Amino acid sequence: MPERPVYVGLLGLGTIGTGVVRLLQAHGPRIDERLGFPLRLKRIADIELERDRGVPLDSYALTQDWHEVVDDPEVELVIELIGGDGVARSAVLAALKAGKSVVTANKALLAHHGPEIYACAETYGSDIAFEASVGGTIPVLRALREGLCADRIDALHGIVNGTCNFILSEMEERGETYAACLKRAQDLGFAEADPSFDVNGMDSTHKLCILLGLAFGLHVLPEAIPTDGIECVTPLDIEYAERVGFRIKLMAIAKERDGGVEAWVSPTMIPRDSVLGRVGGAMNAIEVRGSMSGPTLYYGAGAGSLPTASAIVADLMELARAGRCGVKRRVPPLGTPVLREIPLRRKEDLEGEYYLRFSALDRPGVLSHIAGALGEHGISIASLLQLERHASEAVPVVMMTHPAKDAALRAALAEISHMGDVLAPTQVIPVEREI
């Protein structure tokens, strides 16, 4: 007698949802063979069902109402790819309350509502998996949850947004402006028509919230994480970074230090010959440092229909296998049933090295005034470069600092901004050498 199938419902048939359908159709026999029983997509819900997705949909029950998928008694597993944290939250909670396990790639949903969703799954004996929410096809969440669970994580450094990494890589290779490289990213499909969620750093921040939960056992809301995007990075910043042996990458960084955890997302100068410094194009990479295991690296395609679909279906297979064996919640979603009560350090208390670019008039005494203001706030200069000289015109003045407190730096820059010889806001980029 053939094995009874495990039936799946899909909510959302956009780019990633279509990739899931394509993968299940292409690899269905292999997936069934590895599971030892059939895994079958039964129902699909999407508000727009007329558009041709390039995959046959005749064998599925299609609906515009997600309730019909969640309420189907035969559907045991639900994939949520609606996006956002409105309808998606309602659908995920409804599925979990119905005793169905859920797979999602929705980092915004988990960043804002993770504890509510995890608690709901525990209360109703369901499970939730979200490997595809960070790093696409890279199995970094599974590594943190299980492979490194015996270790204490000291730090993680991640390039987790392929759009930003592509733009910054293009700026370096071509010497072009941010705007020109963003346009190329859009033309090639690496950036959305409205790329603000990527380039302002918020996408990376949502992913960092999830990583903080798995690496440090913390629930941190996105608004608590200092976040800067890449819009203000110029070819001049790229050029100077190259001169001193660095590259600029949009980094998501978290460290446990001095009794607390510090976390931020920002364009950051990192050594160009480091492993992360060599990550180019639209690729993602995350380095995790354990106190016993040392550094481990996770690299791969962080976005795209099929890479992300691969991670989603892997989660689907894990939940299907566990359900068939009568096992639920084999490992808690964050690898621990209890979150830690340790503080996220305030931005003003963070300490590090910084790259500073001033736009100043080329007049006697200007440099000494800037250096004096920095010195009064306890900030010492490691190096200085005045890239060019033009009589009576603003010129870029670049400084690298020794380690300094963020609060002291901001106070000094506020004072400098009122100097008549400084004509524009100062560019500030943190420097991270320990990568």
Annotate the secondary structure layout:
Blueprint: E1 6-11, H1 15-35, E2 39-45, E3 61-63, H2 66-70, E4 75-80, H3 87-97, E5 101-104, H4 107-123, E6 128-129, H5 140-147, E7 153-159, H6 162-174, H7 178-187, H8 196-199, H9 202-216, H10 235-243, E8 246-257, E9 260-271, E10 283-290, E11 294-301, H11 305-324, E12 351-361, H12 366-376, E13 381-386, E14 394-401, E15 404-405, H13 406-416, E16 427-431
Parallel strand pairs: 1-2, 1-4, 2-3, 4-5, 5-6
Antiparallel strand pairs: 7-8, 7-10, 8-9, 10-11, 12-14, 12-15, 12-16, 13-14
Helix pairs in contact: 1-11, 3-4, 4-9, 6-7, 12-13
Number of helices: 13
Q: Average the pLDDT over all residues and give the rounded result.
A: 94
Written as H for each helix and E for each strand, in order along the chain, the element string is EHEEHEHEHEHEHHHHHEEEEHEHEEEHE
- Biggest sheet strand line-up: 3-2-1-4-5-6
Radius of gyration: 24 Å
Please identify which CATH superfamily of the largest domain we are dealing with: Dihydrodipicolinate Reductase, domain 2
Range of strand content: 15-25%
CATH architecture of the largest domain: 2-Layer Sandwich
- In CATH, what is the class of the largest domain? Alpha Beta
